């Protein structure tokens, strides 16, 4: 699952600027989760509760929890299935073509709100290719209306993608992880904002 970034002043140079540190940020996040797991396992052992966490299954360094608490680990790759629309109107489920990829990708570009949901799959694919659309989001329209209604002239939206282009939902497995990836991108942007010394601000 990837992250889509767009806004009023977001261009290709932003993608080139953020992408080199994006993978490092994901590695740091994975290390933090791993250390957190180790600390929790140690606490459970000391409290005599070791062995009660057997519902976590590892796969390629990732972990998944079936508990009601949100699990921000990357889910098992086998749960990331894609659907292909055949010529006869049938839908076939296929495995992700990039099954060995361990890190999310950052996509910078336009996202479409309302009209995408009204197009059939073939027309939507053609529309996306023609206008270089990165994502379709049926809930995006209300966000844009709020931005325009409040006269916000400079904005950036960061969205972690956990749904597929055909409308298939994968929230139970991937939504917490997608939210974490979006938060990492937002953190990177904030950390790269220029800082000003207090005295220079007072002079202005």
Automatic annotation (TrEMBL):
Domain of life of the organism in this record?
A: Eukaryota
Task: State where composition is biased (Low complexity).
Answer: 47-68
Q: Where is the composition biased (Basic and acidic residues)?
A: 28-46
Q: Name one GO molecular function term.
A: catalytic activity
Question: For this chain's UniProt record, which GO biological process terms are given?
Answer: nucleoside metabolic process
- Map out region (Disordered) in residue numbers: 28-70
Q: What is this protein called?
A: Uncharacterized protein
Organism annotation: Romanomermis culicivorax
